[in-house]
Amino acid sequence: MDIDLGLLFGKKNPPLIGLDISTSGVKLVELTDNGKNEFRLERFASEPLPRGAVVDGNIENIEQVSEAVRRVWKKSGTKARHVALGLPPASVITKKIVLPGGLTEEQLEVQVESEANQYIPFALEEVSLDFDVIGPVQTAPDDVEVLIAATRKEKVEDRAAVAEAAGLKPVVMDIESYAARSALDRLTSQLPKGGQGQIVALFQIGAQVTHVSVLQDGQTLYEREQPFGGNQLTQDIVRAYGMSFEEAEAKKRAGDLPEGYERELLEPFLDNAALEVTRAIQFFFTSTPYTHIDHIFLAGGCAIIPGLVDMIAERTKISAAVASPFKGMQLGPNVREKQLRGEAPGYLVACGLAMRRFD
């Protein structure tokens, strides 16, 4: 979903940063094109958010979030002020429709609005509406398939307000799951035979929610969200050791916890995570005609917890890997490689948003 792209015309790919705002924090990525159809990672940075600043994808405290955005922008050292932002999938209604081919842009807009009326449970004036022509319909080449995306205006306005309050200019508004898919497509193309025909499952384990997508050749076969995330482990640490949530989160990330933590808290959490993944795969099989998955990718902050990938591969009997969105990219002089290795899976959405510069 794009907003005000007019200012991009006349300039080829001006610098654009991907800015991912989630429950736990803000992540920033800047990419450049190094030719040969490949990217170079110039900058990446993250900044935590106070609890309650973002809840269920809604920005509850614009001031706290814009302050974190300002800090992450400064920390990254970028000069770029144009940003691509993402909306959580749960706040966007998407629908594919078929329209006659050969319509002008204006005619398409009129048709899309009248179609959208049937699918959107709000008044159109309360809605930000966008559409994208996917291409001809295979069975009816004279018709085109069009993807409609709609969200409440306030969702777009809140994110735009955060960026603007931090001195940045929002130029692209995408859907987080679409951004993640763009970043994942790069990784899938590095699988044997370019990943063609392979069914790939992506598990993005966030702070509170795990987003599950199953894809084949860039098309989404299945999507759902499960109420499971890394905050469960943080809450367990809070309860077991009487720490504040912030302290528990910091010590969890630093691996600075009392003896017995791994056995008493971490192992049960990993066991639970593997169970959630197995359950989601069973749901996929029972609710679609598909009966196998070729490859699992894990993303999000929890993906790098030692032992998780191996446990999931063993439980599901499917090859599994951590989704490192910068794999195969050149690294700019400002990128610290050691830090990148530990944090990369959390940057899938931010990376996909930064890739919008080259669309």
UniProtKB/TrEMBL annotation:
Domain SHS2 stretches: 16-184
GO biological process: cell division
Origin superkingdom: Bacteria
UniProt xrefs under InterPro entries: ATPase_NBD, FtsA/MreB, PilM, SHS2_FtsA
Gene3D superfamilies assigned: 3.30.1490.300, 3.30.420.40
NCBIfam families linked: pilM
Protein's name according to its UniProt entry: Pilus assembly protein PilM
Organism listed in the record: Noviherbaspirillum galbum
